[in-house]
Design a protein that fits this description.
single chain, 110 residues, mainly alpha, elongated
Amino acid sequence: MDHVSNEIMGLRPGSVELEKPTKSIPKPAIPKFATEAQERAYWESHDSIDHLDWTKAKKATLPNLKPTTKTISLRLPQHLLDALKVAANARDVPYQSLIKVWLQEKLHSQ
C-alpha cells in the first residue's frame, strides 16, 4: 500500500518522504484597532485562520441571545383576523405570537 500512496503523492519508489512538522508554528496576534472601520477593513483582506487555530476551538452556547425580529405590515381580511384572535384567546396567547408559531410550523412541515 505504501507504493500506492507514494505514487498518489508523486513520490517514486525509493524516494524520501518528508515528515510532517510536529510543532505548530505560532500564529501572530490579532492587531489592536483604533476604530471599528479599521477592524472591518483588516478582516476584509485577512483570514482568521492566519491568527487562530480553529482545530482547538470549542463549541459555545449563547443562551441569552434573542433572535432578531423585523416589523412587517400584513393586510388580512377582517374575518381572518377575528378568527386568529379567537383562536389565540382560546389558547391564552397573543394573536401575533400564535401567527408566528403557526407560520413556523407550516414552514417546517413542508
